[in-house]
Amino acid sequence: MNLVVLIAVVGAVHNYVTDHFDMFISQDFAGIARGGDLALVEDHCGSKCGICLIKTDPGSSAAEVVKRLVEACHSSPNRSLRLAAFEGTVIYLPPGGYYITGSETGFAVLPPARFVTANYLPKDDRITVDWVAGERRDEYLTINGSVFIQSGEHTGTASLEGVCTRKRHDTRTETDVAPNPSDLAVCVLKKKWAPGLPLTFRARTARVHVSGTLQEDLDNVPFYGNVGPNWEPWCQAGFQEGDLRLYQGEKSEVPEKKRKLAFASSPETKFYCQMFEIKKDVPAEGGIYRRYLGLIPGHKYRVYARFNTFEASAETGDWSLSFHACADPPGQGLTVNQMAGRDGLPNGATGPEASRIAVFQNGGQTTAGKWARVSTGMEGAPPSAADITIPEGSTSISAWVRVKGSTPNRFGMDWSALEDLTAK
Fold this sequence. Notes:
The chain is mostly beta strands and about 425 residues long.
Protein backbone atom coordinates (compact mmCIF):
# COMPACT_ATOMS: atom_id res chain seq x y z
CA MET A 1 0.00 0.00 0.00
CA ASN A 2 2.74 2.48 0.99
CA LEU A 3 4.71 1.69 -2.16
CA VAL A 4 1.64 2.26 -4.33
CA VAL A 5 0.96 5.58 -2.59
CA LEU A 6 4.60 6.65 -3.05
CA ILE A 7 4.49 5.81 -6.76
CA ALA A 8 1.22 7.71 -7.11
CA VAL A 9 2.59 10.79 -5.31
CA VAL A 10 5.83 10.86 -7.35
CA GLY A 11 3.79 10.41 -10.53
CA ALA A 12 1.49 13.26 -9.56
CA VAL A 13 4.48 15.55 -8.93
CA HIS A 14 6.00 14.60 -12.27
CA ASN A 15 2.72 15.22 -14.10
CA TYR A 16 2.22 18.58 -12.41
CA VAL A 17 5.72 19.74 -13.33
CA THR A 18 5.59 18.47 -16.91
CA ASP A 19 2.21 20.18 -17.36
CA HIS A 20 3.73 23.50 -16.22
CA PHE A 21 7.24 23.44 -17.75
CA ASP A 22 7.03 27.13 -18.65
CA MET A 23 6.81 28.05 -14.96
CA PHE A 24 9.82 25.98 -13.89
CA ILE A 25 13.61 26.42 -13.95
CA SER A 26 15.43 23.94 -16.16
CA GLN A 27 18.92 22.62 -16.84
CA ASP A 28 19.88 20.56 -19.88
CA PHE A 29 22.68 18.08 -19.18
CA ALA A 30 24.84 17.95 -22.29
CA GLY A 31 27.75 15.51 -22.29
CA ILE A 32 28.87 12.15 -20.90
CA ALA A 33 29.75 11.50 -17.25
CA ARG A 34 33.45 11.22 -16.43
CA GLY A 35 32.83 9.92 -12.92
CA GLY A 36 32.72 11.78 -9.62
CA ASP A 37 30.36 13.60 -7.26
CA LEU A 38 27.53 15.63 -8.76
CA ALA A 39 25.54 17.91 -6.45
CA LEU A 40 22.33 19.81 -7.14
CA VAL A 41 22.10 22.75 -4.74
CA GLU A 42 19.23 25.09 -3.89
CA ASP A 43 20.96 28.16 -2.52
CA HIS A 44 19.38 31.52 -1.68
CA CYS A 45 22.67 32.87 -0.27
CA GLY A 46 21.40 32.69 3.29
CA SER A 47 22.56 30.48 6.13
CA LYS A 48 21.12 27.21 4.79
CA CYS A 49 20.94 25.40 1.49
CA GLY A 50 19.47 22.19 0.12
CA ILE A 51 21.93 19.67 -1.35
CA CYS A 52 21.21 16.50 -3.29
CA LEU A 53 24.38 14.57 -4.18
CA ILE A 54 24.95 11.47 -6.29
CA LYS A 55 28.08 9.65 -7.48
CA THR A 56 28.34 9.16 -11.24
CA ASP A 57 30.01 6.35 -13.17
CA PRO A 58 32.33 7.08 -16.12
CA GLY A 59 30.48 6.73 -19.42
CA SER A 60 26.97 7.21 -18.01
CA SER A 61 24.73 9.12 -20.41
CA ALA A 62 23.19 12.47 -19.52
CA ALA A 63 19.73 10.89 -19.47
CA GLU A 64 20.87 8.22 -16.99
CA VAL A 65 22.47 10.81 -14.70
CA VAL A 66 19.43 13.11 -14.79
CA LYS A 67 17.08 10.22 -13.96
CA ARG A 68 19.23 9.16 -10.98
CA LEU A 69 19.53 12.75 -9.77
CA VAL A 70 15.77 13.31 -9.84
CA GLU A 71 15.17 10.02 -8.03
CA ALA A 72 17.59 11.13 -5.32
CA CYS A 73 15.86 14.53 -5.10
CA HIS A 74 12.56 12.84 -4.31
CA SER A 75 14.12 11.57 -1.06
CA SER A 76 15.53 14.97 -0.10
CA PRO A 77 14.34 16.81 3.04
CA ASN A 78 14.33 19.98 0.88
CA ARG A 79 10.80 20.67 -0.36
CA SER A 80 11.83 22.30 -3.65
CA LEU A 81 14.19 19.47 -4.57
CA ARG A 82 11.45 16.93 -3.92
CA LEU A 83 9.46 18.58 -6.75
CA ALA A 84 12.17 17.81 -9.31
CA ALA A 85 11.06 16.23 -12.59
CA PHE A 86 12.81 15.38 -15.83
CA GLU A 87 12.27 14.83 -19.51
CA GLY A 88 15.13 13.21 -21.39
CA THR A 89 18.30 15.09 -20.42
CA VAL A 90 16.51 18.10 -18.89
CA ILE A 91 15.76 18.50 -15.19
CA TYR A 92 12.98 20.84 -14.03
CA LEU A 93 12.50 22.50 -10.64
CA PRO A 94 10.15 25.14 -9.19
CA PRO A 95 11.42 28.78 -9.13
CA GLY A 96 14.46 29.22 -6.91
CA GLY A 97 18.24 29.56 -6.94
CA TYR A 98 19.81 26.32 -8.19
CA TYR A 99 23.18 25.25 -9.50
CA ILE A 100 25.18 22.12 -10.26
CA THR A 101 28.59 21.60 -8.68
CA GLY A 102 30.94 18.77 -7.76
CA SER A 103 33.93 16.85 -9.09
CA GLU A 104 31.94 15.46 -12.05
CA THR A 105 33.22 17.43 -15.06
CA GLY A 106 31.53 15.69 -17.99
CA PHE A 107 28.67 18.18 -18.28
CA ALA A 108 28.71 21.84 -19.26
CA VAL A 109 28.55 23.79 -15.99
CA LEU A 110 29.56 27.44 -15.65
CA PRO A 111 32.50 28.04 -13.28
CA PRO A 112 32.00 30.38 -10.31
CA ALA A 113 33.58 33.79 -9.91
CA ARG A 114 37.10 33.65 -8.43
CA PHE A 115 39.05 35.20 -5.56
CA VAL A 116 36.08 36.94 -3.90
CA THR A 117 37.45 39.48 -1.41
CA ALA A 118 35.37 41.70 0.90
CA ASN A 119 37.16 44.55 2.66
CA TYR A 120 35.32 46.37 5.46
CA LEU A 121 36.41 49.83 6.65
CA PRO A 122 34.89 50.56 10.10
CA LYS A 123 35.62 54.30 10.00
CA ASP A 124 33.55 54.67 6.83
CA ASP A 125 31.00 51.90 7.52
CA ARG A 126 31.72 50.72 3.98
CA ILE A 127 32.49 47.37 2.43
CA THR A 128 34.24 46.92 -0.91
CA VAL A 129 33.86 43.62 -2.74
CA ASP A 130 36.26 42.56 -5.48
CA TRP A 131 36.42 39.40 -7.56
CA VAL A 132 37.78 38.09 -10.84
CA ALA A 133 34.98 37.59 -13.35
CA GLY A 134 34.63 34.37 -15.29
CA GLU A 135 33.75 33.70 -18.90
CA ARG A 136 30.40 35.50 -18.66
CA ARG A 137 29.82 39.12 -17.64
CA ASP A 138 26.71 38.51 -15.57
CA GLU A 139 27.77 38.51 -11.91
CA TYR A 140 25.71 40.07 -9.19
CA LEU A 141 26.36 40.57 -5.50
CA THR A 142 24.28 39.64 -2.46
CA ILE A 143 24.98 40.35 1.19
CA ASN A 144 23.02 38.39 3.79
CA GLY A 145 20.73 37.09 1.07
CA SER A 146 19.65 40.46 -0.34
CA VAL A 147 20.55 41.58 -3.86
CA PHE A 148 22.81 44.59 -3.55
CA ILE A 149 23.95 45.39 -7.06
CA GLN A 150 23.91 43.65 -10.39
CA SER A 151 25.39 44.41 -13.77
CA GLY A 152 26.20 42.80 -17.08
CA GLU A 153 29.27 44.93 -17.73
CA HIS A 154 31.93 43.58 -15.38
CA THR A 155 35.21 42.50 -16.91
CA GLY A 156 38.28 41.21 -15.11
CA THR A 157 38.16 42.45 -11.52
CA ALA A 158 35.01 44.30 -10.45
CA SER A 159 34.88 46.45 -7.34
CA LEU A 160 31.56 47.45 -5.77
CA GLU A 161 31.16 49.64 -2.73
CA GLY A 162 28.40 49.67 -0.14
CA VAL A 163 26.49 47.23 2.03
CA CYS A 164 22.95 45.97 1.57
CA THR A 165 20.79 45.22 4.60
CA ARG A 166 17.70 43.03 4.42
CA LYS A 167 15.55 46.15 4.22
CA ARG A 168 17.14 47.38 1.00
CA HIS A 169 16.80 45.85 -2.44
CA ASP A 170 18.16 48.63 -4.63
CA THR A 171 21.43 49.22 -6.44
CA ARG A 172 22.69 52.20 -4.47
CA THR A 173 26.45 52.28 -4.13
CA GLU A 174 26.43 53.46 -0.52
CA THR A 175 24.27 52.21 2.35
CA ASP A 176 24.58 52.44 6.11
CA VAL A 177 25.44 49.41 8.22
CA ALA A 178 25.98 48.83 11.88
CA PRO A 179 29.59 49.61 12.88
CA ASN A 180 31.88 46.57 12.80
CA PRO A 181 29.42 44.03 11.35
CA SER A 182 29.94 40.57 12.83
CA ASP A 183 28.11 38.29 10.41
CA LEU A 184 27.98 39.25 6.73
CA ALA A 185 27.50 36.54 4.11
CA VAL A 186 28.97 38.01 0.91
CA CYS A 187 28.11 36.05 -2.24
CA VAL A 188 28.93 36.61 -5.91
CA LEU A 189 26.65 34.78 -8.34
CA LYS A 190 26.41 34.26 -12.09
CA LYS A 191 22.92 34.61 -13.55
CA LYS A 192 23.12 32.72 -16.87
CA TRP A 193 19.84 34.27 -17.91
CA ALA A 194 18.64 37.00 -20.23
CA PRO A 195 15.17 38.46 -20.92
CA GLY A 196 13.20 36.30 -23.33
CA LEU A 197 15.14 33.11 -22.55
CA PRO A 198 13.90 30.25 -20.36
CA LEU A 199 14.90 30.34 -16.69
CA THR A 200 17.98 28.17 -16.18
CA PHE A 201 20.35 27.16 -13.41
CA ARG A 202 23.07 29.62 -12.50
CA ALA A 203 26.72 28.99 -11.69
CA ARG A 204 27.90 28.03 -8.22
CA THR A 205 27.89 30.78 -5.63
CA ALA A 206 31.29 32.20 -4.68
CA ARG A 207 31.33 33.28 -1.04
CA VAL A 208 33.31 34.89 1.73
CA HIS A 209 32.22 35.46 5.34
CA VAL A 210 32.95 38.87 6.90
CA SER A 211 33.24 39.62 10.61
CA GLY A 212 34.59 43.12 11.17
CA THR A 213 37.90 43.38 9.33
CA LEU A 214 38.32 39.59 9.20
CA GLN A 215 37.17 37.73 6.08
CA GLU A 216 37.08 33.92 6.06
CA ASP A 217 36.62 31.18 3.49
CA LEU A 218 33.89 29.30 5.37
CA ASP A 219 31.96 28.11 2.31
CA ASN A 220 30.32 24.80 3.24
CA VAL A 221 28.94 23.71 -0.17
CA PRO A 222 30.52 20.98 -2.37
CA PHE A 223 33.47 22.16 -4.48
CA TYR A 224 33.31 23.06 -8.15
CA GLY A 225 35.78 20.57 -9.63
CA ASN A 226 38.47 19.41 -7.22
CA VAL A 227 39.60 22.74 -5.76
CA GLY A 228 37.97 24.65 -2.92
CA PRO A 229 36.05 27.91 -3.47
CA ASN A 230 38.15 31.00 -4.27
CA TRP A 231 41.30 28.89 -4.80
CA GLU A 232 42.94 27.77 -8.05
CA PRO A 233 45.41 24.93 -8.82
CA TRP A 234 49.00 25.38 -9.95
CA CYS A 235 51.61 22.86 -11.11
CA GLN A 236 55.35 23.35 -11.61
CA ALA A 237 56.57 22.94 -15.18
CA GLY A 238 57.99 19.49 -15.82
CA PHE A 239 55.44 17.78 -13.59
CA GLN A 240 52.04 16.46 -14.62
CA GLU A 241 48.98 17.91 -12.91
CA GLY A 242 47.86 14.38 -12.06
CA ASP A 243 51.10 13.68 -10.15
CA LEU A 244 49.63 15.66 -7.26
CA ARG A 245 46.00 14.74 -6.75
CA LEU A 246 43.70 17.54 -5.58
CA TYR A 247 40.25 16.58 -4.35
CA GLN A 248 37.42 17.41 -1.94
CA GLY A 249 37.61 15.76 1.45
CA GLU A 250 35.00 15.43 4.19
CA LYS A 251 35.58 15.84 7.93
CA SER A 252 33.78 13.01 9.69
CA GLU A 253 34.03 14.78 13.04
CA VAL A 254 31.61 17.54 11.96
CA PRO A 255 28.10 16.94 13.40
CA GLU A 256 25.45 15.98 10.84
CA LYS A 257 23.29 19.05 11.51
CA LYS A 258 26.25 21.34 10.71
CA ARG A 259 26.94 19.76 7.30
CA LYS A 260 24.04 21.40 5.43
CA LEU A 261 24.82 25.00 6.37
CA ALA A 262 25.91 27.18 3.45
CA PHE A 263 28.44 28.87 5.74
CA ALA A 264 30.19 27.04 8.55
CA SER A 265 30.13 28.88 11.87
CA SER A 266 33.83 28.17 12.45
CA PRO A 267 36.74 26.26 10.88
CA GLU A 268 35.97 23.36 13.23
CA THR A 269 32.42 22.95 11.84
CA LYS A 270 33.40 23.28 8.16
CA PHE A 271 32.53 19.91 6.60
CA TYR A 272 34.44 20.05 3.32
CA CYS A 273 38.22 20.41 3.12
CA GLN A 274 40.85 20.65 0.42
CA MET A 275 42.89 17.46 0.06
CA PHE A 276 46.35 16.99 -1.48
CA GLU A 277 47.70 13.54 -2.28
CA ILE A 278 51.17 12.57 -3.47
CA LYS A 279 50.89 9.40 -5.55
CA LYS A 280 53.16 6.39 -5.07
CA ASP A 281 56.73 6.83 -6.31
CA VAL A 282 55.77 9.76 -8.57
CA PRO A 283 57.63 13.04 -7.85
CA ALA A 284 55.16 15.89 -7.50
CA GLU A 285 55.32 19.64 -7.05
CA GLY A 286 52.32 21.94 -7.12
CA GLY A 287 49.42 23.11 -5.03
CA ILE A 288 46.76 25.80 -4.91
CA TYR A 289 46.75 29.58 -4.67
CA ARG A 290 44.36 32.41 -3.81
CA ARG A 291 44.53 36.14 -4.43
CA TYR A 292 43.05 38.71 -2.06
CA LEU A 293 42.01 41.72 -4.13
CA GLY A 294 41.22 45.41 -3.63
CA LEU A 295 43.58 45.85 -0.69
CA ILE A 296 44.80 49.25 0.50
CA PRO A 297 48.45 50.36 0.09
CA GLY A 298 50.00 51.04 3.48
CA HIS A 299 47.62 48.72 5.34
CA LYS A 300 49.02 45.73 7.21
CA TYR A 301 47.34 42.33 6.73
CA ARG A 302 47.47 38.96 8.47
CA VAL A 303 46.99 35.73 6.49
CA TYR A 304 45.65 32.56 8.14
CA ALA A 305 45.08 28.90 7.23
CA ARG A 306 44.59 25.48 8.87
CA PHE A 307 46.37 22.29 7.83
CA ASN A 308 46.46 18.60 8.70
CA THR A 309 49.27 16.21 7.72
CA PHE A 310 47.26 13.15 8.86
CA GLU A 311 49.48 10.02 8.84
CA ALA A 312 52.62 11.63 7.37
CA SER A 313 55.78 10.75 9.29
CA ALA A 314 58.42 13.27 10.29
CA GLU A 315 61.06 10.52 10.44
CA THR A 316 60.74 8.93 7.01
CA GLY A 317 59.93 9.70 3.41
CA ASP A 318 60.34 12.59 1.00
CA TRP A 319 57.56 15.13 1.41
CA SER A 320 56.84 18.73 2.37
CA LEU A 321 53.78 20.96 2.73
CA SER A 322 54.36 24.70 3.02
CA PHE A 323 52.20 27.83 3.15
CA HIS A 324 53.34 31.18 1.74
CA ALA A 325 51.99 34.70 1.13
CA CYS A 326 53.27 38.02 -0.19
CA ALA A 327 52.06 41.25 -1.79
CA ASP A 328 51.58 41.00 -5.55
CA PRO A 329 53.30 43.16 -8.14
CA PRO A 330 51.12 46.04 -9.38
CA GLY A 331 48.13 44.82 -11.40
CA GLN A 332 49.01 41.13 -11.53
CA GLY A 333 49.53 37.94 -9.55
CA LEU A 334 52.51 35.60 -9.20
CA THR A 335 53.89 33.14 -11.72
CA VAL A 336 54.18 29.39 -11.24
CA ASN A 337 57.97 29.69 -11.02
CA GLN A 338 57.62 32.24 -8.23
CA MET A 339 55.25 29.99 -6.25
CA ALA A 340 57.65 27.07 -6.79
CA GLY A 341 60.56 29.10 -5.37
CA ARG A 342 62.52 29.15 -8.61
CA ASP A 343 62.13 32.88 -9.32
CA GLY A 344 62.33 35.75 -6.85
CA LEU A 345 59.21 37.31 -5.34
CA PRO A 346 58.17 40.98 -5.66
CA ASN A 347 59.42 41.63 -2.10
CA GLY A 348 62.92 40.48 -3.10
CA ALA A 349 62.78 37.13 -1.27
CA THR A 350 64.21 34.14 -3.12
CA GLY A 351 64.33 30.36 -2.80
CA PRO A 352 61.91 27.73 -1.48
CA GLU A 353 61.65 29.50 1.89
CA ALA A 354 60.62 32.84 0.37
CA SER A 355 57.63 34.37 2.22
CA ARG A 356 57.05 31.06 3.95
CA ILE A 357 54.57 31.20 6.82
CA ALA A 358 54.76 27.55 7.90
CA VAL A 359 56.26 24.26 6.73
CA PHE A 360 55.56 20.62 7.60
CA GLN A 361 58.01 18.03 6.26
CA ASN A 362 60.04 14.90 6.85
CA GLY A 363 62.89 15.75 9.19
CA GLY A 364 60.76 18.57 10.59
CA GLN A 365 57.31 18.66 12.14
CA THR A 366 53.84 17.30 11.41
CA THR A 367 50.41 18.20 12.80
CA ALA A 368 50.15 14.73 14.42
CA GLY A 369 46.79 14.12 12.80
CA LYS A 370 45.22 17.30 14.19
CA TRP A 371 44.19 20.52 12.47
CA ALA A 372 46.84 23.20 13.07
CA ARG A 373 46.23 26.93 12.59
CA VAL A 374 49.08 28.98 11.16
CA SER A 375 49.37 32.67 10.27
CA THR A 376 51.70 35.51 9.58
CA GLY A 377 52.69 37.52 12.63
CA MET A 378 52.97 34.54 14.99
CA GLU A 379 55.19 35.03 18.02
CA GLY A 380 58.73 33.88 17.31
CA ALA A 381 58.07 33.52 13.57
CA PRO A 382 60.93 34.18 11.12
CA PRO A 383 60.94 37.39 9.02
CA SER A 384 59.45 35.48 6.08
CA ALA A 385 56.26 35.03 8.15
CA ALA A 386 55.79 38.67 9.14
CA ASP A 387 52.45 40.38 8.61
CA ILE A 388 52.23 41.88 5.11
CA THR A 389 52.15 45.62 4.45
CA ILE A 390 50.88 46.48 0.98
CA PRO A 391 53.44 48.63 -0.90
CA GLU A 392 52.49 51.57 -3.08
CA GLY A 393 51.20 50.46 -6.46
CA SER A 394 50.02 47.05 -5.27
CA THR A 395 46.44 46.21 -4.25
CA SER A 396 46.52 42.44 -3.70
CA ILE A 397 48.13 39.56 -1.83
CA SER A 398 48.77 36.06 -3.15
CA ALA A 399 48.65 33.13 -0.72
CA TRP A 400 49.71 29.70 -1.90
CA VAL A 401 50.19 26.13 -0.73
CA ARG A 402 53.14 24.16 -2.09
CA VAL A 403 53.28 20.37 -1.85
CA LYS A 404 56.43 18.58 -2.93
CA GLY A 405 57.79 15.06 -2.69
CA SER A 406 57.65 11.48 -3.91
CA THR A 407 56.49 9.57 -0.82
CA PRO A 408 52.77 8.67 -0.81
CA ASN A 409 51.02 10.95 1.65
CA ARG A 410 47.85 12.99 1.97
CA PHE A 411 47.37 16.42 3.51
CA GLY A 412 44.40 18.71 4.12
CA MET A 413 43.51 22.41 4.38
CA ASP A 414 40.08 23.31 5.74
CA TRP A 415 40.13 27.09 6.23
CA SER A 416 41.81 30.33 5.19
CA ALA A 417 41.32 33.96 6.15
CA LEU A 418 42.63 37.51 5.77
CA GLU A 419 42.52 40.25 8.40
CA ASP A 420 43.12 43.97 7.90
CA LEU A 421 45.11 44.91 11.03
CA THR A 422 45.29 48.61 10.13
CA ALA A 423 41.53 49.10 9.72
CA LYS A 424 40.72 46.96 12.77
